[in-house]
Write a structure and sequence with these properties.
Number of domains: 2
Distance between the termini: 48 Å
Strand content: 15-25%
Shape: globular
Low-confidence stretches: 42-70
Largest sheet: 8 strands, mixed
Strand order of the largest sheet: 12-11-8-13-16-17-19-20
CATH architecture of the largest domain: 3-Layer(aba) Sandwich
Helix content: 25-40%
CATH topology of the largest domain: Rossmann fold
Bound molecules: flavin mononucleotide
Length: 473
């Protein structure tokens, strides 16, 4: 990755950067990162326009980005977490996309951001109190709940999610959340130990089963010194694109009535009761595919190996560890119309796995593990005579000769499509957020531009939809 020294920029640029950073409350370094990220995501023309007057082309591009959600309304509920300050930026990002924003601050949120600063960015009064006569006669909690296309909770604190999962309604935010029929998107943010707590996990499962959607949390540094792990709120740009995706997917339930099976994540193959062989798969791609299929209205079963990403909302999830368990779960999920095998299944398991923890042997500096082939889940399902899905799709994770190997795999496995991707360390695919795919079918290959794993999922589900609808027609 190239590095950039701000000191080397010309004085005018440095001054502009400092002014922008001061205005948005970020460090200069963070401001540069924000600008670059926006430019890369092709959504940041308005920011870059501060340095370069907009051209006709950039203006056209800006208005095109805003189009699909132009008249949509989002109610943003800011919870009482340290990440609340990022939600002020989120308001700007949503408004840039032509979305009308209303905002509720919980009592705890007011310790982190003020109604005045949120209101200044929203451009209208923000709501804080259930029993405020002025607010109640003006708009009222029921209108706040009804007059929105989507409710976004960011940061979704552990406490707020617990209250939602339990159906509480003891303040304005929870009452509105209980009274709404709109879709709810949660951006959790908390200390990694709070995130890993069994109570939080239980509440998350409940909220996912109730139909809430999630974005994040991400892994990284916490606000507290020396704390890091999973629990950082997704960045405002990530939340804004999740919002856009939900708002533009509304009404396009093209996979309604279809059953889709997706596998995701790694498998763990035990060496003994405490050790295992695994791989670097994060499950991000498979989970994104399951979420995209569910957003398109499909009845989705996700068979997932051990991952730290959250279960996608509205999806039946079967959690497994080994390749053999994964195959069993996949067979249980049949019949389906489409099966997408995105999991990184271990090719081998340990034949001589110990029943007890293996001990070092005195005087012996080596130990042998004998490996035995695991069942080939993709080939097993693709070659089934009974209950073979109409479309069987595999992934070919290769580190060399990616497309050539994928073509061979298409034939040897008997599947219909292969999504070939380069997982060599230089590609950053394993564990990263982006993917570069070549779709290999018997009719030919199609190279997709490098894109986020969410975009890959959306593109794949669009192709699946086209194909199923062609068959129907
Ligand atoms: C400095 C500070 C930071 C906090 N950050 C978080 C956080 O990031 N996530 C969280 O779940 N709770 C956090 N808490 C605890 C919440 O503020 C507390 O649980 C509160 O009741 C949540 O209110 P809410 O339900 O209105 O969001 C923090 C508390 C303090 C004092």
């Amino acid at each position: 990755m190239a590095s950039l020294t701000v000191r080397q920029l010309d004085d005018r640029l440095k001054k502009l950067l400092r002014m922008r950073a001061a205005k948005s409350g970020r460090s200069v370094e963070d401001e540069v990162r924000t600008i670059l990220r926006e430019a890369a995501e092709d959504t940041g023309r308005t920011v870059l326009d501060a340095f370069e007057p907009p051209t006709a082309r950039s203006r056209a591009r800006t208005s095109r980005t805003a189009l699909p959600v132009e008249t949509k309304r989002v109610l943003l509920i800011i919870g009482g977490g340290i990440a609340a300050y990022k939600s002020l930026d989120l308001i700007r990002r949503l408004k840039e996309r032509g979305i009308t924003v209303r905002c509720i601050l919980t009592k705890a949120a007011e310790h982190f951001v003020t109604p005045l600063s949120a209101g200044a960015i929203v451009g209208e009064h923000v709501f804080t109190d259930l029993f405020d006569p002025a607010g109640e006669f003006d708009i009222g909690h029921i209108r706040l709940a009804r007059e929105t296309d989507l409710i976004v909770v960011a940061p979704a604190t552990a406490d707020l999610m617990a209250k939602m999962a339990g159906g509480h309604a003891d303040d304005l935010a929870t009452t509105v959340l209980l009274a709404t029929t709109a879709k709810i998107l949660l951006a959790p943010a908390m200390n990694p130990r709070m995130w890993a707590n069994k109570a939080t996990k239980r509440n998350l499962r409940q909220l996912a089963a109730d139909g809430a959607a999630f974005v994040g949390p991400n892994e990284g540094e916490m606000a507290e010194a020396d704390e890091s792990g999973v629990g950082r709120m997704a960045e405002p740009l990530e939340i804004a694109s999740a919002v856009q995706k939900i708002l533009s997917a509304e009404g396009t339930q093209l996979l309604q009535g279809r059953r889709v099976l997706v596998t995701s994540g790694p498998t763990y193959e035990p060496i003994d009761p405490v050790r295992y062989i695994a791989n670097r798969s994060s499950g991000k791609q498979g989970h994104a595919i399951a979420a995209a299929a569910a957003a398109a209205g499909a009845d989705v079963t996700l068979v997932s190996g051990p991952v730290s990403v959250a279960d996608p909302p509205g999806v039946k999830v079967m959690h497994v560890e080994t390749a053999r368990d994964m195959l069993k779960a996949v067979e249980q999920a049949l019949p389906v119309d489409v099966a997408i095998f995105a999991a990184a299944v271990a090719d081998w398991r340990v034949a001589n796995a110990g029943e007890q923890k293996l001990k070092k042997q005195p005087g012996k500096s080596t130990a042998e593990l004998s490996l035995i082939e695991n069942p080939d889940i993709l080939a097993t399902i693709a070659k089934r005579k009974m209950q073979r899905p109409k479309l069987v799709i595999g992934f070919a994770a290769e580190t060399e000769n990616v497309v050539a190997n994928a073509k061979l795999k298409l034939i040897s496995k008997g599947c219909d499509w292969i999504l070939a991707n380069d997982v060599s360390p230089r590609s950053g695919v394993m564990g990263g957020d982006r993917n570069t795919i070549t779709l290999v079918r018997s009719s030919g290959t199609e190279a997709w531009k490098p894109q986020s794993k969410d975009e890959v999922a959306a593109t794949l589900i669009a192709r699946v939809t086209e194909t199923l609808n062609e068959e129907k027609g």
